[in-house]
Structure formats: C-alpha cells, structure tokens
Amino acid sequence: MLKVPEHQVAGHLAIDGKLGPLVDDSGRFYKPLQGDGRGNKELAFYESFSSDTRVPDHIRKYFPVCYGSQLLEASNGSGLLHHLVLQDIVSSHRNPSIMDVKIGSRTWYPEASDNYIQKCLEKDRRTTTVSLGFRIAGLQLYGGKESGYWRPGRKEVQSFTVYNVRSILRRFVSSNSSIGNENSDCSFAPSIYGGSAGILEQLLELKAWFEDQTIYHFHSCSLLILFDKESVSKGSASVPEIKLIDFAHVVEGKGVIDHNFLGGLCSLIKFVSDVLSDSKESSIKDCVESEKPGICTDNGNCQ
Amino acid sequence: MLKVPEHQVAGHLAIDGKLGPLVDDSGRFYKPLQGDGRGNKELAFYESFSSDTRVPDHIRKYFPVCYGSQLLEASNGSGLLHHLVLQDIVSSHRNPSIMDVKIGSRTWYPEASDNYIQKCLEKDRRTTTVSLGFRIAGLQLYGGKESGYWRPGRKEVQSFTVYNVRSILRRFVSSNSSIGNENSDCSFAPSIYGGSAGILEQLLELKAWFEDQTIYHFHSCSLLILFDKESVSKGSASVPEIKLIDFAHVVEGKGVIDHNFLGGLCSLIKFVSDVLSDSKESSIKDCVESEKPGICTDNGNCQ
C-alpha cells in the first residue's frame, strides 16, 4: 500500500534502505518523525496551528492538512516508527513541475546553539540564502511525454548562483524548458505566475499576512510552488499552487513579525514579477514584430 | 564657527580630543572621512546616489543633501582632514526628540571578511538586531523646559531588549516620557506616528520603494526619526521627519532587492503601528469612561 513518493524533490528519500517519507493511494503523505526532537516539534507545530483561531482561513489553505501521527513500518526497515500524517499535496497533479524554495536570509534562529548557528550560517553563505533571501532546495520540471522530467541532483542544486536561480524561475514557466537553453520563452508565465489565481497573487496574499502576523517565526521552512504543465497547455482549470512545508524549526513570534521570512518572500516576489513583466514585454514585441492585426491581451497573448 | 553637534545621539562624538563630526550655523554637518576606506565609500555612495536618475524625488527627500567634501581642521587636533559636507538634519528643529534606528537583521554583507562578519554577528545577536530586524543605536527624548533631555548612555542603549524597544517607541510619543514610567500615555502618537504626513506614512512610502529597488543594499545604515515636541504641543506646522544616514557599507544591489533592510523596516512599521492602534483604542476607552458627550476622532482625540 505505502510507496516512495514519485515527485519528492528535496529532503531525505526513502530509497536504498534509508529513512524517508511514504505515500499511499488515498492522498496521504507519511513523514517519519525526525530524531533529536525535531519530529516532535513539527508535530507540535501542526497541532498548535490547526487549532489556532488567529490564523485566517484564506491563509490556512497554504498549509498541508495534518491528520495527526501514526505508527508505521519505517522505510529503512528499522521497525515501527511514528509518522506525521499529512495531505499529499502532489497527488492531485498528474505531471507536476515543482520547486522547493527555502525562504529566509538565515535558516538558524536566535535560540539555537552556537554550533548549529555556525553550521547553518556556512551553508547560508555558500548558497543564495544570504544574497537572495531564499534558496532553491530542489526542483523538477516536466518537459513533456518525450523528455520527461528535469530533476537536478542535490549537489547541482546546492551550487545554484543568483544567475541560475533567475534562469530557473524563467525555465520553470517555459515551453522550451526541457532543452535547457538560455532563451526560455516564458510562454506559461502569464497563466502560471500571472492572473488572479496565479502564483504572484498567492505570494502577495501570503506576504500581507506576514506583514502582520506575530504568532510564528518560520525558520528553515520551504515554499513549494507546483503546477501541471499539461493542464495549462490544454487550457484546463488546474490552478498553480503554493504550499508551506517543513516546520521543525518554527518558534513563537512573541509579538514580533517574522521579518526574516518576510524579507525573503519579498525578494522571491520581485523575481517572479520580473519574469512576468519580461514575458509581457516580449509578447508585445512579438505582436508588433509579427505585424499581426491583433492586440496583446492582459495575459500576454496576441489576439 | 564650527562646533560639536548638540543633538548627536549615536556614533563617534567630537569631545575629549576625539575625532567626530562638526556643525556650523548655516545648517551644514561635517563628517570626517573615516579611515580604512569607509569614508571614501560613503563619499562615493553620495556621489553615485545624487546623480542616479533611477531614484525618484519622493524618495530622495529621505536622504540628507550632500555638498561634496572639504578639508577641515579635525576635531582631535590631528590637522587637516577630508570631511563629508552634509545637510544638518537636526538644525531645523528646536528641541528635537531623536531616535537612531539601525535597520536590518544583519549589519554585515556577504562580501565582507570572515573576521568582520563574526564581529558584526556577535553584536547583532547581543542586541535586538537579529530578533527584531533592527536595533536602537541611540536616542534623546525632550521632556520639557524643566526636565530637559533624556539621553541614555551607550552601554544602556546596547543592552536594550525587545521589551525596552517597545516601551521606548511608546515613551517617544508620550507627554509623560520624562518621568520614565511604564504607563506612557502615547498622547502624541496620533500626531507624530499617525496622520497623512506622520512617521508611519513616511515609513510605508520608503517600504514601497524597497520592495522594488534593486540598486543599493544598505548595510548597517540608520534611520533617524525626529520631531519637535514643543511644536506639536503648540499645534505648530512642524512635521515629524525620517532620514536615512550612514552609508559606509552600502553595496550594489545587482538586481536583487535589499530584503535585509526591507524585513527590518517592516518589523519597525509593525511596532510603530501597534503603538498607534493602542493609543487610538485607549483614547476611545477614555472617551467612553469619561462619559463625554463627544465622539472619538480619527486621530484619537475626543471631540
């Protein structure tokens, strides 16, 4: 019944006898409770969060539903282990393109040990975390039936520069992403990043909450961005989604906003809106150059 | 002609034979060019900034005017030294209450040396920089003719906790600030923090620019908040001001927003708007409790 998730792009994988999350066919995701208290902290977060009436409904949809915990056979054969039972976000998508973006210009928190802080700081400086306020922790791009998925390895992902990140945010919404060229067409940008139900609007809704909420500080938490390219190509109703995941390092906000998360989120928003503006501009240019009698619509297409 | 500034609340003071800034009677502020290249970096910033057409006029007003540099006798008697010639922001205020707030949850920048980063990080963790995304670097509160100014010493300022910062942001706009009690009345909050020309609106205007500008990253830069309590009490037209100062550690933005400054600024905005909301609520309470037949106006006063 339980199996290794097909579309996991970051974190520990339940392969080669290792410990990792599992999924079932009913849309549930089983995440083994991590040792050294982190698993219990994440479970405690979900419990506190799901009963917290201060969290508005329009924000709650950006978090996976949690169904408590359950004892299950661990994927590494070590026997029964407590697992967090979560909504399998990916299960509703057929060929999902997914990006896991770790938000914040630091992944450590003030209360942590000096050792932990130095370890995180080193990685934050080595990746784009310090410079961009976020880093891509993993991704897969669906290129179509023939080319399948592009899923760069962990080492490649960890070496992404600012330039790479900008280029990946373009390739993520391009019809020619699979060939890995530098001239991504960004043809899906208007329908994925743009529009009233697009990624940008969702990020802005989340941002408005972070400008005000002082309940939680989300350290080392990831934002998943996912969509189904085939649905988009076919004009289907499938909407792009964002979800926050990984809450082992959430601490109380104590009346202060999560300025670390918010700053990084604003940086990501700027990158996404840059891609969207560029794609609109180049659409207008295309319309003009092709001397079509049509006009450019709001979503960047020629009419 | 040149003298030690009367209202300098942070930084090196030109007293006891030490090197520090000087002012004249015509509203100019002379800042000695700091050694190890920092002075030249600050001068270079002002030169680049003042000719940068990408900076809109409504943002330019938040920076002191720079009149170039000038050779002057240094305050420590070491002879002629280059000084940055700036607008003396404080000169237009009679009895200014001033707060110097260093913005950002880190004061170091990625390109700095490991030693410099460790030194900054240590201070950032010791102060409220990491927890709040900003720290108060100095302040003076004018209490009236009799009580004069409250200006805490450097050590006291450096030991401010989150609790202290919140309390000072209340005392800063209270009529009973000089007695240092815990029940600051925040009676000036509606006219200083609130209103269309108040501190909050100015901070929000600056924030909107920081959400978009990718030209500069302002590390270890301060935001001065200043106003003249006597003018406010007398209902004069003197408006509260914010100004950015200290640009020795500004680096190029290279297409990325200054998420470190922006996050800290948003945190400060939340603190200021919390004080404002509280003061409005307590005004309404006062109106109700005093059973006045009046109503509470938008600026929190009873009518």
UniProtKB/TrEMBL annotation, chains A, B:
It comes from the Eukaryota. It is an enzyme of class 2 (transferase). One of its GO terms (molecular function) is ATP binding. Inositol phosphate kinase with a broad substrate specificity. It comes from Gossypium hirsutum (Upland cotton). GO terms for biological process: inositol phosphate biosynthetic process. Its EC number is 2.7.1.140, 2.7.1.151. It catalyses: 1D-myo-inositol 1,3,4,6-tetrakisphosphate + ATP = 1D-myo-inositol 1,3,4,5,6-pentakisphosphate + ADP + H(+); 1D-myo-inositol 1,4,5-trisphosphate + 2 ATP = 1D-myo-inositol 1,3,4,5,6-pentakisphosphate + 2 ADP + 2 H(+). Belongs to the inositol phosphokinase (IPK) family. Keywords: ATP-binding, Kinase, Nucleotide-binding, Transferase. One of its GO terms (cellular component) is cytoplasm. PANTHER family: INOSITOL POLYPHOSPHATE KINASE, INOSITOL POLYPHOSPHATE MULTIKINASE. This is Inositol polyphosphate multikinase. Pfam families: IPK.
